């Protein structure tokens, strides 16, 4: 699912032909993966957080360009987190506050974030 607040310049429309002349992927996952690649292919990126799940394992990375003000760096990190929370909430059809609360609870209960619901701690 796309972040609706993304810049129009970075959007990859499923009906468009890509710069390499190929048609866009037909499936939704493939289209979003292509969109992610397009978003990362930009020298103007100031901060990035990427998470992937492979074989049930979660792997993430975060990077940002140094800002003159450490508060700005913290705000960028929080802005990325907030965007991810809104994205997950929209996908799940729930309020962002529900997702944020569940994520905070989960993060406090486990050392590594599980990729599969079978690996969640008992309540």
Uncertain residue segments: 1-19
Number of helical regions: 3
* Major β-sheet profile: 2 strands, antiparallel
> How would you state the average pLDDT, rounded?
78
Which term fits the overall shape? globular
Strand order of the largest sheet: 1-2
The total strand number stands at: 2
Strand content: 5-15%
Series of secondary-structure elements, N-terminal to C-terminal: HEEHH
Domains counted in the coordinates: how many? 2
Span from first to last CA?
A: 29 Å
Radius of gyration over alpha carbons?
A: 16 Å
**Percent range of helical residues:** 40-55%
- The structure class reads alpha+beta
Description:
By secondary structure, the chain is of the alpha+beta class. It has 2 domains: 1-45, no CATH class; 47-123, no CATH class. The protein has helices spanning 28-40, 70-92, 96-109, and strands at 47-54, 57-64. The protein has a two-stranded antiparallel sheet.
Quick structural summary:
By secondary structure, the protein is of the alpha+beta class.
Layout of secondary structure:
Layout: H1 28-40, E1 47-54, E2 57-64, H2 70-92, H3 96-109
Antiparallel strand pairs: 1-2
Helix pairs in contact: 2-3
């Amino acid at each position: 699912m796309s972040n609706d607040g993304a810049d129009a310049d970075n959007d990859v429309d499923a009906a468009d032909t890509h710069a390499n002349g190929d048609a866009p992927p037909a499936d939704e996952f493939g289209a979003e993966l292509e969109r992610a690649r397009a978003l990362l292919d930009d020298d103007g990126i100031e901060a990035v957080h990427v998470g992937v799940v492979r074989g049930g394992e979660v792997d993430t990375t975060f990077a940002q360009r140094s800002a003159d003000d450490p508060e700005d760096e913290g705000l960028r990190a929080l802005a990325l987190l907030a965007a991810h929370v809104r994205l997950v909430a929209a996908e799940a059809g729930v309020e962002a506050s529900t997702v944020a609360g569940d994520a905070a609870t989960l993060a406090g209960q486990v050392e590594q974030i599980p990729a599969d619901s079978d690996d969640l701690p008992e309540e």
